[in-house]
Write a structure and sequence with these properties.
Blueprint: H1 2-17, H2 19-48, E1 60-66, H3 78-87, E2 95-107, E3 110-119, H4 123-127, E4 131-134, E5 150-153, H5 155-162, E6 172-175, E7 178-186, E8 201-204, H6 208-211, E9 227-231, H7 238-255, H8 257-260, E10 264-269, H9 270-273, H10 277-315, H11 317-325, H12 330-365, H13 382-407, H14 412-417, H15 429-461, E11 471-476, H16 485-500, E12 505-511, E13 522-524, E14 539-545, H17 549-553, E15 557-560, E16 574-578, H18 579-585, E17 595-598, E18 601-609, E19 624-628, E20 637-643, H19 651-661, E21 668-672, H20 673-676, H21 678-716, H22 718-726, H23 731-761, H24 776-802, H25 806-812
Parallel strand pairs: 3-8, 5-7, 14-19, 16-18
Antiparallel strand pairs: 1-9, 1-10, 2-3, 2-6, 2-9, 4-7, 5-8, 6-7, 11-20, 11-21, 12-20, 13-14, 15-18, 16-19, 17-18
Length: 813
């Protein structure tokens, strides 16, 4: 302990002895440590953090229906959920259900469409969530369909919509044009059963008919749409719970063979479920890529600082020689030097936390182009602080060990005379290895950044199959306002006519779904005369639209016609298919007049349109079909408004037109199509911008590192260079000599980096749109750019070497 305290006091003196050296080392490390801490905070929030406001979530599990094939994480029906609650011993009744539901809410004189949670009455009890005000739902509210119009408000929604007014308790608010009484406000830390999503309102499951008008799902065992979360009883393991579920499913197959013949139940521990198990692999993959990138950045920073410490070690060679000559053990000297490096890393870690705090604040302020409330809630919690502390300690050892070993073994005689040892000369192998390593890591980091930026560029320019410019969207749902089909048809016709009359409007169409969003449905089809291969998928994605939709979207018609006024509810069923579907089922033939059997009817193909992008920008071409909305009715509908100029300028007029027809009708998702595409482009933009910033920082660190190594090399060879010049060496030859040495090291690093980047880039292909993981522009352009930057970093010391005065150089030594 005495030795440690002595080393610590000495390290503090060294910290303040060279303020410029300290500032350079601390800033470089703080950049790497801070970015790692910020990224780990995001990864921890998405993958590892327990559900906020939930009691002992290690006891919670998510339950999914499963069917043969790809359906592993399916939803549950209400009767199925009730049987799980009442009949599985492992949970002792602690089984809750929940789902997101779109609601029309009117309160405080404002109409709004929100994405709320419809939950079972025991939802808050199963999760162990407390209330900030009032109560949760009672056992009585788990029975009696339609008998319990009560709601619990989310804490954030209570703050923003009701100004944290405690008198909201007992107040009546309108949901779907029906009065509901506020009975509670959730605790501030509670955000429901899905990470990152903060529901504004919770309503009882028994109010399903009122919350989802037009559907009666309470007794529908075959209609699966609920999420189920359960709490294991004390002492019950996951294995025992699975055994109970296996026994349960056997009972259900005997009682309801039509519903359970091929299905099973898949149990996933809550901490492994995340947002949803189907997204787990992509979440882990993206997190691993991002953490790898910032780890590379930290390694580059460590190499830079190791170079600085190696340079300082050469300045302290006489001190080390005296210590060794007086009998100091090498291990004792290494211990002292490591204490210095760890202290530097600790200071850098503290500074890095400040940088991470700023980065986290920026992350929390991001507004995602999504239709539901997202709360990242990134923070410097205990786990992030422990991670940062461990990272700082490891960093101090990594960058300090090599200089400590190097500095503790100088040759006694040369060190005492103040001469440079062979190991600390300009040809130092350590410095050369560090330059090569730094260049290698920089190439991998920069190529990764370049691929994501190229992917973003390609995604932006990708042919989506429709024209996204000058297109305004607005969603309306008369069904939530209690409209029946006849009233809604009149409303839709009037809104189309009113919007078409607005100045600057070229076309108006309505559709049930917007492409490249989370809204997607499919239907099984059969084609007369077409025999599907074994296991061939015959489920086709679809949309329903009004006659003006294709013109409003700018979707080209390849054959036949679009929808017209003659395609009415009573008319002949017709359908429009995309070119990919036509080529699949009727290759070499005209699809016009062909029949598609689906939805209990025979639909005649009357048109073929261009194949587009429907679910994601990176998808392979898909079959797709369009139905006339009059013949395949649905709520809600989205207005697609094609304009002459800036579509956002008409947003106010669209809202005013809807209010003219129904003042209580909320308008949701009022945005341009280009803004809507931000949902599909968000992963590419986030990856491109983030990795682009990391890549630039990595290149700057690499340039600084190469410059410092070469500048140090020139300073150590000053006498040699002076002799060369005195003997008649041409100064341009000196420049070439220094440049050749530096660029030879950089070239070695570039070759090694390209090999590593080729291997690593294979894992990034799933995150790229329209660009190969071996994109030649990136793999040729990035090395050229780095070589140019490295050339400049080498040229400055080379020019300094050529300007050495021979006499002053000889006298100095």
């Amino acid at each position: 302990m005495d030795n440690f305290l002595h080393d610590l006091r000495f390290a503090f003196r060294m910290l303040f002895k060279s303020p410029l050296f300290t500032a350079a080392a601390v800033f470089t490390l703080a950049l790497g440590i801070g970015l790692n801490a910020a990224v780990f905070s995001a990864v921890h929030a998405v993958l590892f953090r327990p559900l906020p406001g939930v009691r002992q979530d290690s006891e919670l599990v998510q339950l999914y229906r499963s069917w043969p094939g790809d359906m592993v994480y399916g939803s549950n029906s209400i009767p199925h959920y009730q049987d799980l609650r009442d009949r599985v011993e492992a949970f002792e009744g602690k089984v809750a259900s929940w789902t997101f539901v779109t609601l029309s809410l009117s309160a405080e004189g404002r109409n709004q469409r929100i994405l709320g949670n419809m939950v079972s009455a025991n939802f808050f009890d199963v999760l162990g969530a407390r209330m900030a005000l009032g109560r949760g739902f009672t056992k009585d509210e788990s029975t009696g369909p339609g008998a319990h119009p009560v709601v619990v408000l989310g804490h954030s929604f209570w703050q923003t919509r009701f100004g944290s007014d405690p008198s909201v308790m007992g107040r009546s608010i309108s949901i779907n044009n029906r009065p509901f009484t506020v009975v509670g406000v959730a605790a501030e830390e509670f955000q429901g059963a899905m990470p990152l999503v903060d529901p504004p309102v919770y309503a009882p499951l028994m109010m399903q008919r009122e919350l989802i008008p037009g559907f009666d799902l309470i007794e529908a065992r075959g209609n699966n749409w609920l999420n189920v979360v359960a709490r294991m009883a004390p002492g019950v393991t996951v294995e025992r719970a699975r055994e109970n579920l296996d026994a349960f499913i056997l009972q259900m197959r005997e009682e309801y063979p039509d519903h359970y013949e091929d299905s099973g139940i898949h149990l996933v521990p809550q901490r492994e479920a995340g947002i949803h198990p189907i997204f787990r692999a992509s979440q882990v993959g993206m997190s691993a890529v991002t953490m790898a990138v910032v780890a590379f950045l930290l390694l580059i920073a460590c190499i830079n600082v190791a170079n600085l410490f190696l340079a300082r070690a050469s300045e302290r060679r006489k001190e080390m020689g005296i210590r060794l000559s007086l009998g100091a053990r090498r291990g004792r000297i290494v211990s002292q030097l490591l204490t210095e490096s760890v202290l530097f890393a600790a200071v850098a870690g503290a500074a890095g936390l400040g940088l991470a705090y700023g980065a986290i604040a920026i992350g929390n302020s991001l507004s995602l182009p999504l239709d539901f409330p997202v709360d990242f809630d990134l923070r410097l919690d205990r786990n992030v602080l422990l991670f940062t502390a461990a990272l700082a300690l490891a960093t101090g050892i990594v960058f300090g060990l090599a200089p400590a070993l190097q500095a503790s073994k100088p040759e006694f005689v040369s060190a005492l005379k103040g001469e440079a040892s062979l190991e600390l000369a300009g040809r130092s192998r350590s410095g050369a290895v560090l330059v090569v390593a730094q260049t290698t890591l920089s190439i991998v980091l920069l190529i990764g950044s370049g691929l994501f930026l190229r992917g973003l560029q390609a995604a932006t320019a990708l042919d989506k199959g429709f024209e996204s410019d000058n297109l305004l969207l607005a969603s309306v749902d008369p069904g939530l306002q209690g409209y029946d089909r006849e009233r809604a048809e009149v409303f839709y016709r009037e809104i189309e006519a009113g919007l078409e009359a607005l100045p600057g409007v070229r076309a108006v169409g309505l559709a049930a779904r917007v492409p490249l969003t989370f809204s997607s449905s499919d239907r099984g089809v059969s084609i007369p005369g077409y025999e599907p291969a074994p296991n061939e998928g015959m489920s086709i994605r679809y949309n329903s639209a009004t006659p003006g939709y294709f013109e409003a979207m700018g979707i080209p018609l390849h054959a036949g016609r679009g929808f017209g006024d003659e395609d009415t509810r009573e008319g002949r069923p017709v359908i429009v298919v995309n070119q990919h579907m036509a080529d699949r089922f009727w290759p070499g033939e005209s699809a016009i007049g062909k029949i598609v059997e689906t939805a209990g009817s025979e639909w005649e193909v009357v048109g073929v349109v261009k194949t587009g992008k429907y679910q994601s920008l990176g998808e392979d071409p898909l079959d797709f079909m369009y139905f006339p909305h009059a013949q395949l009715w649905s709520f809600p509908m989205t207005v697609h408004l094609r304009t002459e100029g800036d579509p956002s300028a008409l947003a106010r007029l669209v809202r005013r037109e809807v209010e003219r027809l129904d003042p209580a009708m909320p308008v949701a998702d009022l945005r341009t199509m280009n803004n809507q595409l931000g949902i599909a482009l968000f992963p590419a933009r986030l990856g491109g911008v983030t990795l682009g910033i990391f890549g630039i920082l990595g290149m700057i660190l690499a340039a600084v590192g190469i410059y410092s190594v070469m500048a140090y090399s020139v300073s150590r060879r000053r006498r040699e260079i002076g002799i060369r010049v005195a003997l008649g060496a041409d100064r341009s030859r000196v420049v070439r000599m220094v440049l050749w040495k530096g660029m030879r090291l950089v070239g070695t690093g570039v070759v090694l980096g390209l090999g590593a980047a080729i291997f690593v880039s294979r894992f990034a292909q799933s995150f790229l749109y329209g660009v190969s993981s071996l994109d030649p522009v990136t793999f040729l352009g990035i090395p050229a750019l780095l070589c140019a930057v490295a050339g400049l970093a080498n040229f400055l010391p080379a020019r300094r070497a050529a300007s050495v005065d021979p006499m002053s150089a000889l006298r100095a030594d």
